[in-house]
Amino acid sequence: MGGEEIVVPLLGGSAIWSVLDYDGQAVAEVAAKEGKAALGRLPVGFYRLMQAGQTNRVSVGVVAPLQAPIPLTSPIAMDVAMSWFYPAEKMEAVANLSALAGVNWVRDRLNWAEMEPRRGEFGRTNRYDASALAESRAGLQVLQVNHYSPAWANPTQKRFPLDLRDAYRFYREMAARWKGQVRAFEPWNEADIPMFGGHTGSEMAAMQKAAFLGLKAGHSNVIACWNVFALHNQLQLADLHENEAWPYFDTFNLHHYAPFDQYPKLYADFRAVSGGRPLWVTECSLPVKWAGDDKLKEPTEADLRLQSERVAQTFASSLHEGASATFYFLLPHYSEGQTQFGIVRPDLTPRPAFVALAAVGRLLANAKPLGQCKSTHETVRAFLFRAEPDGRAREVLVGWTTSGEATMPLPVVPQAVLDHLGRKREGSVSLSLTSAPLFALLPEGTARKMLLNTPPKPAPWLEGEASPVVLQALWPEEKVSLSKSAYRISSEKAETIPVYLYNFHAEAARGRLRVTGPQGWKITFPDQVELAPQERKELGLTVNCRGTTAQLVEKLRIEGDFGSAGRAVLSMRVMPEPFKVSNQNSVAIPEANEAKRWQPSIAGNGRLVLTNTDAGLVVQAEPLGADRWVYPTFSLGAGERPPSGTVALSFSFSLLEGNGQFRAVFDEQNGSSYAVEFSVQPSADQTMKAVVFLAEAVFGQGWSKPDANERLDLEQITSVRIGCSGGSEKVAFRFKDMRWVLR
Q1: How many angstroms separate the CA atoms of 368 and 385, rounded?
Q2: Which of 87, 218, 476, 618 could make an SS bond with 175 (beta carbons 3.0 to 4.6 A apart)?
């Protein structure tokens, strides 16, 4: 803490240690005595102690003391995952570190199976109780999250419990157990990705409704958060929204690890389905890689600096987009693959990013966005906030450059200027900006003298009341198309989707049911139901779309009117398969059958022959080199580009010889490329109907030209490639009847 005498425990007897600052400059030499070194009073910053002639080093962070309590409404928060990373004897120290960093919200972890090893039997005091107690004693507000079912609730533990009454009961008991300690719950972590179940938006909505009702039954004032998204899949977001879940969450939660310039689009899409509820970003950062010793997993000095610079950039960019709380990921030493997320090491010594977080926590305390500063310099990013650094109301500007240096004029001389570590800098009527952010503390009213782009407006508040009646569809995981947030059903026969109705009320519920679907589909479902208190009842939704013209994805919707118990809604997306491509829902590209329109593209300038036949265009290839690939290219003329509403490309395809990973590649006007693998890889001597969906296109990381948004834009597609990678020395295939498929 700044102003305090600093004593550091050291190994090495009476060895001499050099004290280096963040910039690598020696500021002192100290001798260890009795296993300790007295450093005196160091100014705010990050320091390393280096032993002469040795590789030993110890890091020290000095943070400014808090002059006033951090307001409970401050948006600066952190994921600490204390219960999973630290034993009970370290929890107090970790909680104190979090408080020193100027955060008052922390995110922890919960294991349902440990808390409730058998249905209805809850465990005694354990590590989760210990972490909640340590955090609350340190004055921290706690957000808790779980992401696995006990085996007794679902044998596939990464998936939601099969019976939502189990979720209701569990969260009711947890909210009551930790009343006064845990203020908020996310009922599941990242349920939209396969690692944590791979659920559709509809499934996430049903789980949310049951968990919300349970949480409020356990503690009416608990904050019931949305069961947080990991990805930015607009189809999952739309699927959620169609289930009218907004009365069942107090905050709308999301995660992201996106580049900063992608924030506006990302936040806009999540705001659109938030129902006007506060946005909480409960995991975010732009992490760095570790290098060298895989036991240490420590980033390089350059990447440690980069990690620390990105802390203020992350918070400023997120808060400008309207986040009411942003949780930095992550305090503990934690890596995934080559990525290091943690801002402290296993021994709790800091990385520079911890000191940077403490600067943000103090200087952006209670921050509310005022706008993004307009600048004539394209590399400048600067955001203005109304905040309470050290308990005083001020306007705080956070500015940096995306590259190089730039000068930013100010309308007044700042009351103080500090760098991204909280170190004081000279102030003037301009800021000399680099990639390392600066904080300029300005008097109230300065915003009126600045040119600002106003922050995005919150989404309109959607009215609604939570009903105790919840509807849930259960479909096998293998029949879920996650990218489209849809259930795969047969287009050739009737299917029955199990639908479960729950009554989480203390009284019986009676209601009328109405189901709607695409025109021409034969749909049967009971039109009324009666549910006893806490009853779960299965009803079959039978769907027959045979002989009809279906879109790629269609919607089925069930509405229940339960009188005083309110409205219950279940909306689900379905994909009839095999998909029927017809003249009515597609547009042909006639000249795609002509060999002369295709340009050769093959690894190592190998042999590539294209031949017209009655059965289609035949490609015979002999790619050269270790990385064998072949992708003949069709440049689209003005009348051949995908029409508005295009969702896929279809064609008849036959593998004649060899093998490989087959895909379609779409090139944009700027030269960037996106690939879609065939959903079913072809087998020899079998003709298949290939349908590749544009929504599944993946940016060609490492081989494509750059693209600012790394997203395939329909109107930018200028060419199509069909072929394979990593295949045999000789490969031959045939395709014809290429068509754009419309929604």
Answers
A1: 5
A2: 218
